[in-house]
Amino acid sequence: MAIKAIIIDDERLARNELKKLLQDHSDIEIIEEAANVDDGVEKIENLNPDLIFLDIQMPGKTGFDLLAELEKAPRVIFTTAYDEYAIKAFEVNALDYLLKPIEPKRLADAIQKLQVEIFKETAGVSGLNRGPLTEIDQVFVKDGERCWFVKLGEIRLFESVGNYAKVFFGTHKPLILKSLNALEERLDDRMFFRANRKHIINLRWIEKIEPYFNGGLLVDLKGGEKIEVSRRQTVKFKEMMSL
Fold first, then answer.
1. What domains, with CATH codes, occur in the chain?
2. Short-list 236, 216, 241, 215, CA closest to 227
């Protein structure tokens, strides 16, 4: 099965060089290329590639800006001439990071890593582009200078902050520019539950449930947060959890 890839780089020569190197890797199919972030975002959302080769420094917006605009992040291999970005790229947990000019051996290593990732995940759930986002889909979260790729299964809680949502994973709580209503529409409702006006919880992170006043419930999450399930949502919650 071919791995569909898009190259996003503002330099035509760099795109051509990478395409030439990828001729030795018949399992990677370059379906499109883009020279800037806006074009890249549009092509990713229309074509749903398995992988993007992404330059970091581009005129106007960076590769990190591109990732922040996507609803769900594909697998990413960064390609850049700027090694000071290496630490940042690994902090966002990118698949790999190739320094220009790209060496064939490093490219081969990155593609092998990609194949291992894909093999591990095909054993799990496969998410279709327009269906609900599954637990293995990853979202890109940017908070100031720090960036992460987070699998949805690792997120225990979304909390509404105006037009933003605070994302709780590990010890982090960065904000993303998405409303809770927009998130609720795209999240898999077998896994994520709208507990009240302000919170969506990941059902798999629930540690304890107890009755709360007004006929509601109080849920303890494994991260230590206590979230109230409103009286209106309690009936639905009990049905879902077979309580």
1. 3-122 (3.40.50.2300), 138-240 (2.40.50.1020)
2. 216
